[in-house]
UniProtKB/TrEMBL annotation:
Domain Response regulatory: 4-122
Protein name listed in UniProt: DNA-binding NarL/FixJ family response regulator
Residue positions where 4-aspartylphosphate is found in the record: D55
Residue span(s) of domain HTH luxR-type: 146-212
Highest taxon listed in the record's lineage: Bacteria
Residue stretches in coiled coil: none
GO-annotated biological processes: phosphorelay signal transduction system; regulation of DNA-templated transcription
Organism: Kribbella italica
GO molecular function: DNA binding
UniProt keyword list: DNA-binding, Phosphoprotein, Transcription, Transcription regulation
SUPFAM superfamilies: C-terminal effector domain of the bipartite response regulators (SSF46894), CheY-like (SSF52172)
């Protein structure tokens, strides 16, 4: 089955460019486009795409609010949303991840990273643009309270996998780094999410930095 994608951006030229890039992949299908946040939410709920590419600055409601409505903490069956924007401002990154986005890209990241971000989102992973990753992790590290790491219910191996996720590793990299099978990595991630009451690897990464599991 192809990866079904919804494009949400108020600029028709951007949507057209993304469509050309994505539909050059044999297993991608752009099922709909949205020119504003309200349409993005409506089409997302109606079509249930595998991945939503969401701009931040859009009419009616912005991309952060639209992301929250499709993937936020109160959504029972959240969609996979990747925020793609011109503005890699730190506040936008935090707001997008807090709203439930599973990835964050700047529009000049290039076609290859756009395709990789869609594949990662469809596979339950996350990608944040390299241009903002270092700042993001540094900010989380600085924001963490200067105390000892908190106690947590994770096993040692689950904690190792969560640390790797917090450092931006994808599942295939974690398997090599920790000498684990892919199914074991996924099992540890699922166990960690269940124990911590978190819904995805992005929330795991934020939790790890805020609670000084990494540093």
């Amino acid at each position: 089955m192809p990866v079904r994608i919804l494009l949400a951006d108020d600029q028709a030229m951007v949507r057209t460019g993304f469509r050309l890039i994505l539909e050059s992949e044999p297993d991608f299908e752009v099922v709909a486009e949205a020119a504003d946040g309200e349409e993005a939410v409506r089409r997302g709920r109606e079509l249930r795409p595998d991945v939503v590419l969401m701009d931040i600055r859009m009419p009616l409601i912005d991309g952060i609010q639209a992301t929250k409505l499709l993937a936020g903490p109160g959504v029972a069956d959240p969609l996979r949303v990747v925020v793609v924007t011109t503005y890699d401002v730190d506040e936008n990154v935090y707001a997008a991840l807090r709203a439930g986005a599973c990835g964050f890209l700047v529009k000049d990241a290039g076609p290859r990273l756009l395709v990789e971000a869609v594949r990662a989102a469809a596979d339950g992973e996350s990608i944040v643009s390299p241009s903002v990753t270092a700042r993001l992790l540094e900010r989380f590290a600085q924001a963490a309270a200067p105390t000892a790491p908190v106690e947590h219910p994770l096993t040692e191996r689950e904690a190792d996998v969560v640390r790797a996720v917090a450092r931006g590793r994808m599942n295939s990299e974690i398997t090599d780094e920790l000498t684990l099978s892919l199914s074991t990595v996924k099992s540890h991630l699922a166990g960690a999410q269940r124990k911590l009451g978190l819904r995805n690897r992005t929330e795991l990464a934020v939790w790890a930095w805020e609670n000084r599991l990494v540093g």
